[in-house]
Amino acid sequence: MNNNLSQHLNTLFHINIITKNNNNTSEIKMSNKYKILELLKESELTVKELAERLEFDENMVRVYIHRLKKDNLIKEIGKKNRYIIYTAIKQGTQKSSELVKYLEFINEFFKSNIDYLLQNPKIDRFIEENEKMFNRIEQVIINA
């Protein structure tokens, strides 16, 4: 299998494609990071509980937990004894935050370049025709 395709599949779908050399067949294997994320989508768990369910070393689970937190896919929600309890972040929450960032960028772009943009009659007309939408974008950003 093409190495670039394999990397894209791993990035997009959290799977690894393993090609066996003897008969050139491929096997799909879910990444460890994704296995942990899937468990945290189902229930709130500690590193110890994840390690027990997946039969992993706790330190290895901590590495994946760190990566998932960095990717804003999971969050801490409390403590159980000396362990932190984790859960998956709902995708809608994450996507909303990303959308607000994009809207802020677009809003800032238009505000910073308004004089230049208004020199072009087509852009000027577009801005006039969509004034309500631009105002709505600004309100979403303010209320986010």
Molecular structure report:
There is one protein chain. This protein has 144 residues and is α+β, with helices and mostly antiparallel strands. The chain folds into three domains: 1-30, no CATH class; 31-89, Winged helix-like DNA-binding domain superfamily/Winged helix DNA-binding domain (Arc Repressor Mutant, subunit A), CATH 1.10.10.10; 91-143. The protein has helices at residues 3-13, 32-42, 47-54, 58-70, 91-112, 114-118, 121-129, 131-143, and strands at 15-19, 26-30, 45-46, 74-80, 83-88. The strands form two sheets. The protein has a three-stranded antiparallel beta sheet. A two-stranded antiparallel sheet has the order 1-2. A hairpin with a 2-residue loop joins β4 and β5 (83-88). α2 (32-42) packs across α4 and α5 packs across α8. The protein is rod-shaped. The two termini are 44 Å apart. 9% of the residues are buried.
CATH architecture of the largest domain: Orthogonal Bundle
Read across the widest sheet, the strand sequence of neighbours is 3-5-4
Quaternary status: single chain
How large a portion of the residues is in β-strands, by DSSP E? Answer: 15-25%
Secondary structure: number of strands: 5
Average residue-wise pLDDT: 76
Distance between the termini: 44 Å
Class of the largest domain, according to the CATH hierarchy?
Answer: Mainly Alpha
The number of helical segments is 8
